[in-house]
Amino acid sequence: MLDVRRLRLLCDLSRLGTIAAVAETHTYTPSAVSQQLSALEREAGTALLERTGRRVTLTGAGRVLVTHAETVLAALERTEAALAAASSGPSGELRIGAFPSAISTLLTPALVTLGERHPALDLMVTEIDPAAVPAALLDRRLDVGLIQDYDVVPQQWDPGLDSVPMLDEAVHLAGTGPGTDLSDHRDANWILATPGTLCHTATLQICRAAGFAPRGRHRVDDFGTVLALVAAGQGVAMVPQLATGRLPAGVTLLPLPTRRRTRVAFRRGAASHPAVAAFLSTLPADRDRKLTRRRLAR
């Protein structure tokens, strides 16, 4: 019989790439992870890992087992959800991960509604970059989280996750000076997000498509601060529509040739869990989630 906890470690190794990373995720020692994976190999009766010095890669059998293990883990999520649904209504902790502009505009009203409908739920919100949400969900540090992609930076999500659409919005260049095309700002100072974030990558891709690399002057992740810097003449920046509800005086928006999509993600099999289902039920209908260029022009 294959041990489920060891299967989870194997899936984490496939996702994270190193035994050290798996150990850090689970607060184990690398030696303990190696011992558990060796025990899993004995249970499977075949080699699952290839070891070359300090490097470890999955064998063909290891990759096959990971694929089936994802199905097993999803089935366990569905089982836990069914057990929770068979008891009382939504209760206990619901750990939610979201980026700042979504917390203030989309998530706060949903939390109020959720608290009124299900007072037994203990809602816990963590500010987190969308790029870090998949790992936090798979590591069970979050129960639901907001993930994103842009037309210019499409994402391939982990097979251990499911998601539903939440928002589709336009993206703009915020500035204060003249310019009717993105290339007009090739020599401007830019306010960029932190390298490694999705927003930073999307900005680089958009500018690259226009034939230049942005000259970064400031690195800021909070869009409210970004717009304040733009209004102060400190540079231009890429901002999504969600962040422009209170546009500072003097800041203008130039539509860019991309859109940003936000989805609510959760572990595969967890959609029917009472707490997760309750959270999803508070989201607006699809027709209310689209922020179009026509609305931006108002």
UniProtKB/TrEMBL annotation:
GO cellular component, one term: protein-DNA complex
HTH lysR-type domain boundaries: 2-59
A molecular function GO annotation: DNA binding
Keyword Aminoacyl-tRNA synthetase attached: no
InterPro entries: LysR_HTH_N, LysR_subst-bd, WH-like_DNA-bd_sf, WH_DNA-bd_sf
Entry-linked Pfam families: HTH_1, LysR_substrate
Keyword line: DNA-binding, Transcription, Transcription regulation
Similarity annotation: Belongs to the LysR transcriptional regulatory family.
Protein's name in the database: DNA-binding transcriptional regulator, LysR family
Protein source organism: Actinoplanes derwentensis
